Amino acid sequence: EQINKGKYEHYMQKEIHEQPDSLTTTMRGRLIRGGSCKAKSVLLGGLKDHLKTIRRSRRIVFIGCGTSYNAALAARPILEELSGIPVTLEIASDLLDRQGPIYREDTTVFVSQSGETADTLQALEYALENGALCVGITNTVGSAIARTTHCGVHINAGCEIGVASTKAYTSQIVVMAMLALAIGDDTISSQTRREAIIDGLFDLPSKLKEVLKLDEEMKDLARLLIAEQSLLVFGRGYNYATALEGALKVKEVALMHSEGILAGEMKHGPLALVDETLPIVVVATRDACFSKQQSVIHQLHARKGRLIVMCTKGDAASVCVGGSCRVIEVPQVEDCLQPVINIVPLQLLAYHLTVLRGHNVDQPRNLAKSVTTQ
Ligand code: G6P
């Protein structure tokens, strides 16, 4: 049943719309809301014998490719905040090319939907040789990465068929947010924040349903962008990953050039591209970076940029300079979980662009779901 398209035309479309359910399954049995005496907490059974070692590690290194790497990028801020341990990210092939240092005192976390990606698997073997603790975050029980790691967490997102990863991405972020809660100390000073994140996780499926209502709006936007050569996506902080992942979706399925840009780097190159023709999505939802993003919007506007701003519901007036930009309003969630919501309109945009441009949605040319050769 899981692998037919049901009422949908394509697997990618089905998998985008399935996200309220896949997130529910990812969190099932792992979040404890607590009654009057029980505190809110997280239970990750696959890690319970290794949490002490993880907490004592001198560094946590996340390793993956493509969308799985982007998911780790989205979760890094909350992992750093709650664990207090330096968190670094590695694209598997790059770690292998450099033979970068991995130590016994490191925890390495291998993020892979399929659990079979050749570069990630080889990086895992490399980390094992170097004596690091190896943790897997995969969607495939019994996969090579799940079998080879010391311990791990299954994301339980259900079978993903579309080559472009969608529901696995949001489930991976949620698992890493739960991992951050599991590693972090449950101190009095962190209690309010931890509880807000747990409440936020519980609310995610309903917020996901809400953001999926943007489907028609994203189809309209796709109609507007159908003939474009290129699309830039600006993000920062929690949503730097949204920019990279949104651009990756557009390029891999719609076959349109697209680039995710760290907004803080705007003046170091990307600004030269801005004119009245190139469409630019700016992710500017409410978080600690909001005023910086407002300033980015002003600067892009001053250069006549063609702006599409993603903002928190009710914020259209504060982000739309001169009333000339297009706005995508999304529901607000706890800041560190906002990437789970913000990617959805961009998944929908990539999907509709692909259909309208007449390309193969589920099997984009030259790409494979699981890259098992190097
Ligand atoms: C391929 C797929 C991507 C995926 C990447 C990593 O490129 O097309 O959707 O993100 O591999 O795959 P993994 O299974 O390791 O997450």
Write the topology of this structure.
Layout: H1 11-17, H2 19-27, E1 31-32, E2 41-42, H3 51-56, E3 59-64, H4 66-83, E4 87-91, H5 92-98, E5 106-112, H6 118-129, E6 133-138, H7 144-148, E7 151-154, H8 167-183, H9 188-212, H10 215-225, E8 230-235, H11 240-254, E9 257-262, E10 279-284, H12 290-302, E11 306-312, H13 316-319, E12 326-330, H14 338-357
Helix pairs in contact: 2-8, 2-9, 4-8, 4-11, 5-6, 8-9, 8-14, 9-14, 10-14, 11-14
The structure holds 6-O-phosphono-alpha-D-glucopyranose (G6P).
Can you characterise this structure?
- The protein is α/β, with parallel strands linked by helices.
- Helix content is 45%, strand content 17%.
- The chain has helices spanning 11-17, 19-27, 51-56, 66-83, 92-98, 118-129, 144-148, 167-183, 188-212, 215-225, 240-254, 290-302, 316-319, 338-357, and strands at residues 31-32, 41-42, 59-64, 87-91, 106-112, 133-138, 151-154, 230-235, 257-262, 279-284, 306-312, 326-330.
- The strands form 3 sheets. It has a 5-stranded parallel β-sheet with strand order 4-3-5-6-7, sandwiched between helices. It has a 5-stranded parallel β-sheet with strand order 9-8-10-11-12, with helices on both faces.
- Helix 8 packs antiparallel against helix 9, helix 10 packs across helix 14 (338-357) and helix 11 (240-254) packs parallel to helix 14 (338-357).
- The longest helix has 25 residues, at 188-212.
- The chain is globular, with a radius of gyration of 20 Å.
- 51% of the residues are buried.
- The model has no long low-confidence stretch (mean pLDDT 95).
- The structure holds 6-O-phosphono-alpha-D-glucopyranose.
- 6-O-phosphono-alpha-D-glucopyranose binds next to helix 4.
